[in-house]
Design a protein that fits this description.
single chain; about 100 residues; mainly alpha; Serine Threonine Protein Phosphatase 5, Tetratricopeptide repeat; 6 helices; globular
């Protein structure tokens, strides 16, 4: 399976609040393409949402190495698709828990 497919599947599991499965899928995706910042963001968010904050902070560091100008507040401009109710908020809250800049 390709890294982008795994990332999309991790998103789906995150939206269903199946955070550990999201973590597993995102980890596999980062192994296939460690330069894809979206996968690292998903991994960081899923780890934070599953109370693995130290690991989430480490994943967030990868985001900033790949994409130094990343800001949580820019996500709404970058992603114009409709999130299910509460998913965007859960994702942003989880990313904030990692210490990524707002």
């Amino acid at each position: 399976m390709e890294y982008d497919t795994l990332t999309a599947m991790a998103w789906a599991r995150f939206a269903l609040r199946d955070y550990q499965r999201s973590v597993d899928l995102a980890k596999r995706a980062t192994q296939l393409n460690p330069r894809f910042s979206s996968t690292w963001r998903m991994l960081a968010a899923a780890l934070a949402a599953s109370d693995q904050v130290e690991k989430a902070v480490e994943a967030a560091r990868h985001v900033l190495v790949i994409e130094p100008s990343f800001r949580i507040s820019n996500l709404r401009q970058r992603f114009r698709f409709q999130y299910p109710d509460g998913v965007r908020e859960s994702y942003e809250l989880a990313l904030r828990a990692t210490g990524l800049p707002d």
